[in-house]
Amino acid sequence: MDTKYRFAGLALLLIAGCSSAPQPIIDTKGVDMTVYQQDLAECQQYALQVDTSSGVTKGAAVGAAVGGALGAVSGGSGKRGAASGAIVGATKSGGRAANEKQAVVKNCLRGRGYRVLN
């Protein structure tokens, strides 16, 4: 199997893992779960405002530049290094964006009076 396909497959798995972020865990004592579900949905809508595409694009570009340079310096293929670097950069940036979305949801819930445990 060609190396670029292995890297692409790995990147897709990593990005998919980032997009399936766990739900916030709250202390449910005294909480009306119907109201909580509505608040959670509203907080998740706020999290959609986090710009993920530009961060992933920038991460891929920086990763490609660094990977290409390292590949060329080490005597290997600059193209392979650039491809690998782009995948790693995009994946890391995607992970950071997913973390930021989680933080928005949790901060929103805290602001509405919920005790977020995770």
Summarize the topology.
Layout: H1 3-19, H2 33-47, H3 53-73, H4 78-111
Helix pairs in contact: 1-4, 2-4, 3-4
DSSP strand tally: 0
Query: How many helical elements?
Result: 4
Kindly report how far apart the N and C termini lie.
40 Å
**Low-pLDDT windows of residues:** none
Percent in strands: under 5%
Radius of gyration: 19 Å
Largest sheet entry = none
Roughly how much helix do the residues carry, as a percent range?
over 70%
Query: How many separate domains?
Result: 1
Which class best fits the helix and strand makeup?
mainly alpha
Helix/strand order: HHHH
The outline comes out as elongated
- Average pLDDT, all residues: 74
